[in-house]
Write a sequence for this structure.
């Protein structure tokens, strides 16, 4: 009995659900007299998952090979050939995406927004280059990063920049890093990906503006080697920090430096530290005085930077779509509105409450206010530390690469006349 | 000193990695457009990083009415009711019309020609069953980190979906 009831109930449900779905259509599906089969709607598949993991595998292989070429084989040609390979594979074949430089934004968004599901490959692309750098120096920059590789092969007539120019331009990546993290943390945009200058070249497709920026950077790169890596790349900042404490690192000479000065001008990135004789060591009193000065100036710079950053919170937050929409909606109420933007008409047609949008937008604006303080403070701190670093003399013997800024490209190694095992 | 720092960095990186890996979905996610939110503003055609956008018009035959007077194929208020180029709604003539039987026609999309402008989608939604819908085609899409159409979409119709269930078509059952 009950079985019968259930079956009747199910039957009725089936009929009603059928009617319901029919009612949605203005024109019912025709009943063809001829024999006619409805064609299938094609759903093409995306790139297979194993290929994504293969990318990670290729990253590890490339990193290992470059590291081997830099540290063991000491071959510039080897590094160059891996560069060419990564331009072909990570650049033209993978079209510059997924890349380690952009992955830091996914990591930030993943940390701040618990609803965001970060792909495993992206985590791998963020962590693996950092781990390699931690143990072997910036070998990722040397020949694996497709953005670096394309600039490296055009760096033909490099001029050396003044130390202070380099230090000042070197501040830009920190600002870029801060902005990228701020925008990623507030789920606004991935600015690094959006303003990636070389991805257009790899895709053979970009807006005119991005193509021009890419072309200008490449042309500049002939004379000022790797302008993006040195003066823009935000991931390079992290690699720089990590590389300073690296276990092993590229050395100019395989044995002991004989101070022959042959490698002095070989580095297109100005990353070679020249030996400083002990005798110019200044007296202790001045050093302490300078230390005191920076103890006062750096906190002041942090506060000043933070305050300045917090002044710009409205401008910064206008990049966010929700904030912009809320703002436009407010503006359109004040004016006599003749032509409304698509955003506003769409929002109105969706029938969501305006108050909700305003409250959501105000939360984001508040986030940008505190974000502005942090960003500004961070820039102030970096500015102060750079200033401090420039005033201190680093004492050392022999020619060594600066572990932070050296990109492990291996150009200097060919200049060294010392052979392995010689004294 | 350096060894401790190094150990710290390794632990930190692994910690961040595992924390995030717990939140990740199994498999891959891809960008997709939700046709129920789409307002056919036409930005899909221009905002994609690819020229000839990865967004294409997809025909869900199952809910098509096979109309002779198709709102997605013909411009409204045409002078003479024929299929001449000036009467077609599609700017690239990517919709192919095939006679089935009186008075029914089958409409096919030539995806090589389709630019994803959504004009036909708008027409079909306004006068017909809404069987023409915009979708991201994953054999073309390069799966950017941040979809540049998503950031320009006025209706917030783009989101990441699991790869194995990557279509959001209305009325699509298979």
């Amino acid at each position: 009995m009950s079985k019968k009831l259930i079956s009747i109930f199910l039957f009725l449900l089936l009929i009603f659900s059928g009617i319901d779905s029919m009612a949605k259509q203005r024109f019912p599906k025709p009943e063809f007299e001829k024999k006619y089969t409805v064609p299938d709607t094609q759903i093409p598949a995306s790139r297979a998952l194993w290929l994504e993991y293969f990318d990670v595998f290729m990253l590890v292989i490339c990193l290992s090979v470059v590291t081997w070429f830099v540290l063991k084989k000491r071959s510039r040609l080897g590094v160059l050939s891996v560069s060419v390979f990564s331009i072909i594979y990570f650049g033209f074949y993978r079209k510059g995406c997924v890349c380690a430089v952009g992955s830091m934004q996914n990591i930030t968004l993943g940390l701040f927004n618990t609803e965001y599901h970060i792909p495993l490959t992206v985590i791998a692309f963020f962590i693996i280059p950092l781990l390699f750098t931690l143990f072997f120096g910036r070998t990722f920059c040397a020949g694996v990063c497709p953005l670096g590789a394309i600039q490296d092969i055009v760096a033909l007539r490099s001029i050396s920049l003044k130390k202070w120019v380099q230090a000042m331009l070197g501040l830009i990546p920190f600002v870029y890093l801060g902005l990228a993290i701020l925008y990623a943390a507030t789920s606004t945009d991935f600015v690094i990906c959006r303003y990636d200058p070389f991805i257009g070249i790899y895709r053979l497709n970009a807006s005119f503006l991005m193509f021009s920026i890419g072309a200008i950077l490449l042309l500049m790169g002939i004379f000022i080697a790797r302008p993006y890596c040195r003066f823009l790349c935000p991931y390079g900042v992290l690699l720089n920090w990590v590389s300073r404490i690296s276990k092993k690192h590229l050395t100019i000479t395989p044995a002991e430096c004989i101070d022959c000065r042959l490698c002095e001008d070989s580095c297109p990135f100005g990353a070679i530290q020249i030996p400083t004789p002990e005798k110019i060591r200044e007296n202790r009193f001045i050093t302490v005085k300078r230390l005191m000065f920076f103890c006062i100036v750096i906190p002041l710079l942090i506060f000043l930077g933070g305050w300045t950053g917090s002044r710009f919170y409205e401008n910064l937050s206008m990049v966010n779509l929700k904030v912009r929409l809320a703002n436009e909606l407010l503006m359109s109420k004040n004016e006599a509105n003749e032509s409304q933007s698509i955003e506003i008409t769409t929002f109105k047609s969706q029938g969501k409450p305006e108050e909700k949008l305003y409250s959501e937008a105000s939360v984001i604006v508040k986030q940008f206010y505190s974000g502005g303080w942090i960003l500004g403070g961070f820039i102030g701190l970096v500015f102060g530390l750079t200033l401090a670093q420039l005033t201190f003399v680093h004492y050392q013997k022999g020619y060594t690469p600066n572990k932070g800024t050296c990109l492990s490209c291996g150009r200097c190694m060919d200049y060294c006349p010392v052979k392995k095992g010689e004294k | 000193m350096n060894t401790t720092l190094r150990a710290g960095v390794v632990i930190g990186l692994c910690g961040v990695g595992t924390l995030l890996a717990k939140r990740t979905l199994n498999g891959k996610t891809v960008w997709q457009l939700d046709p129920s939110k789409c307002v056919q503003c036409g930005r899909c055609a221009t905002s994609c990083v690819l020229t000839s956008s990865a967004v294409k018009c997809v025909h869900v035959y199952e809910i098509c009415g096979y109309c002779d007077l198709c709102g997605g194929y013909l411009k409204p208020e045409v002078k003479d009711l024929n299929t001449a180029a000036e009467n077609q709604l599609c700017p690239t003539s990517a919709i192919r019309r095939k006679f089935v039987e009186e008075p029914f026609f089958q409409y096919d999309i030539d995806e090589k020609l389709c630019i994803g402008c959504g004009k036909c989608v708008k027409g079909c939604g306004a006068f017909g069953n809404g069987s023409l819908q915009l979708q991201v085609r994953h054999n073309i899409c390069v799966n950017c980190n941040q979809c540049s159409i998503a950031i320009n979409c006025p209706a917030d119709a783009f989101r990441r979906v699991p790869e194995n269930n990557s279509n959001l078509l209305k009325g699509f059952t298979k």
Summary: Chain B has three helices and six strands. The CA atoms of residues 17 and 53 of chain B lie 34 Å apart. Residues 27-165 of chain B form one domain. Helices of chain B lie at 2-23, 43-47, 119-127.
